[in-house]
């Protein structure tokens, strides 16, 4: 069973610009993925405004019975969130690594237009490798 179920990247406007499933269970169609990204963007923004803590950056972890949702927001407002198995450790470092891959392979790509869907083969290859390496590290292999 994979530790990471899926990855979503949302632009600062709340639009889904990247989505990838890593498990066969619980796959969603495109419309459901768009709804989930929009809902998460809204919840994240509301949590920033309603937080009693000054300087709150929004929800970073949502724990449920069957999954955990880990979120990382970059300084530009782009959100990266991973749906993972409950209790999965080191998701914060994985999300930061995914952000590094995003900056290296997407933002430095001269053909990529900001805020548009990500279609970059090098990003996909390195992202899959990072998820696999993380999965092997969690399994202790």
From TrEMBL:
List keywords of the entry alphabetically: Endoplasmic reticulum, ER-Golgi transport, Golgi apparatus, Transport
Principal localization reads endoplasmic reticulum
Pfam families named in the record: Sybindin (PF04099)
Q: Does the keyword Oxidoreductase apply?
A: no
What domain of life? Eukaryota
A biological process (GO) of this protein is: endoplasmic reticulum to Golgi vesicle-mediated transport
The answer to keyword Coiled coil applying to this record is: no
**InterPro entries in UniProt:** Longin-like_dom_sf, TRAPPC
* Localization (cell): Endoplasmic reticulum; Golgi apparatus, cis-Golgi network; Golgi apparatus
The protein's assembly and partners? Part of the multisubunit transport protein particle (TRAPP) complex.
Q: Where are the transmembrane segments?
A: none
Q: What protein name applies here?
A: Trafficking protein particle complex subunit
Q: Among the entry's GO cellular component annotations, what is one? A: endoplasmic reticulum
Signal sequence extent: none
**Similarity comment text for this entry:** Belongs to the TRAPP small subunits family. TRAPPC4 subfamily.
């Amino acid at each position: 069973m994979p530790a990471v179920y899926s990855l979503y990247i949302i632009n600062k406007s709340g639009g889904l610009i990247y989505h990838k499933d890593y498990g066969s269970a619980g796959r969603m169609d495109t419309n459901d993925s768009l709804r989930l990204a929009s809902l998460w963007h809204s919840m994240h923004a509301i949590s920033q405004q309603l937080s009693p803590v000054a300087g709150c950056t929004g929800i970073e972890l949502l724990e449920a019975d069957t999954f955990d949702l880990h979120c990382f927001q970059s300084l530009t407002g782009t959100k990266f969130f991973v749906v993972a198995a409950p209790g999965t450790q080191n998701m914060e470092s994985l999300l930061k690594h995914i952000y590094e891959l995003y900056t290296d392979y997407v933002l430095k790509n001269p053909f990529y237009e900001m805020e548009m869907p990500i279609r970059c083969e090098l990003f996909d290859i390195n992202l899959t490798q990072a998820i696999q390496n993380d999965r092997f590290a969690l399994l202790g292999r």
